[in-house]
Design brief:
- By secondary structure, the protein is mostly helical.
- The protein is built from 18 helices and no strands.
- The longest helix is centred in the N-terminal third of the chain and has 34 residues.
Amino acid sequence: MKLRMLLLLLGGLLWHSPALLAQTSKVTAGVVAYNQGDFSQAKRDLSAALEKPDLLDAESLTKAYYYRALAKAKASGGPPDALGAHADLIAAGEHADPRWGKKVASALLSLQPVLQQEGLTHLHAAQMRENEGAKTGLLARAARCLEAAASIQEGYQTCDLLGQVYLQKGETEAALTQSQKAIQLYEQAPPDQVDPLIAYTYYRVALIQRQDLQDFSAALSTVKSGQALLAQENQRLKTAGADRQARQQFEKAQKDLDDLSLDLYLQTPELREEALQEFAKAVEDDPDHYLKRVAYAQLLQSDRPAEAAEQYEQAIRIDPKKMMAHFNLGALYLNQAVELFRQANETDDPEQTEQWQKKALEDMKKAKPYFERAYEIDDTDAQVVKALIQISQTLGQEEELQRYLDRQQALGQ
C-alpha cells in the first residue's frame, strides 16, 4: 500500500513537470530578451510566465517579477510604466530569498526618482488642464506615483510634490502634513545644492494655516522659520559662488516670502507694533514699492495720521495712475472731518465748536482733490461717488453735488 501511494505521488509530480518546465522556460526567455534590449518581448514572455504563478518555484517567481519590473521601467515604444514596475518589485520582494532581497531593494531605489519625475509630469499636466475630468485623472495618477516614490524613500522633494498634489485635489489636511514633512526633512538634512523653491513650501504651509485654519500666528511663525532658513541658505549660496540665474531665483523666492510676512502682519492686530517696525524696514529697503507704502500708511493712520498721509503721498508719486492711495488719503481726511464735526456737535463750548468746524472744513477741502483724482481713474466706483456727494454737499457746491448725484443714479445706487 505504501509503495502504491509513493508511485502515485511520483506520478503526480512527473505529470506536472512539463508545465513547470514550460513556465520556467518563459521566465528564461524573458530574461534573455531583457538582456538583449528587447523590453517589449521581455514583458510579453514574463507576463505569460506569471499567468500561472503557482507553477513557478520561489526563485523563478522572484526573477519573473524582478525582470518584468526592469522591462516596464524602460521606455520602449512609449513612456516607462513606473507604477507597474513598482508593483512588480513589491511582488518580487514578497517572494524574494536572501539572494534576491538586495537586488530588489536596489532596483526600488533606482525607480524612486523615476516615479517622482512621473508624478511631477502629471502634476504639471494637471495644472495646464481646464477640463475638470482630465485634471482629476492626472492628479490621481500623480498622487499614486508620488505615494509610491515616498514608500521607497521619503525625500523633501517627494513630500513637497505630494503636498502640492493634495492641495490641488482639495485635501488640505494631507497637503499640510506632507508640506510640513518636506520642511522638516530639508531642515534636518539640507541638500548639497541650495534649493530656493523650498521657500514656496513654507509659503504653501502658511497659506493653509491662514486661509483654511484661520491661524494667523501659526502662519506668521511658519514664514519666519522660512525666512531664517533662507538666510542660512543665502550664505551657502554665496560660498558656492552661484551664478546670476540662481541668485535671481533665490531673491525672488525670498521676496515672495517677505511679502507674505507683511500681509500676515496686516491681518494680525495684536502684532501691530511689530508690524509697524517690519513695514518701516520694508519701505526703507524697497522705497519704490507702491503696495508696501499703501499698507504701511494703513497701519499708521489710526494714531499717526500725518505720517500715514506722507506714505500715501509717496505712493501717489510712485504711481499716480493707481486709485488706491488717492482714495485712502481722501478717506483719511474725510474721516478726520467727520470726527471733528461730531465733536463740534457734542460740545457746549461755542469757541471750541467754531475751531473744530473750521478744521473739519479744511480737512474736507483737503480730501476733495484726492477723491476727484480717484473719480478720474474710475468713475464707476460707488464709494468714490458717495464721498464726493458728501463733500460737495458739506461745502455747498451745488453744481458739483448735482453732477455726482446724477452719476450715482446712473450707477443704479
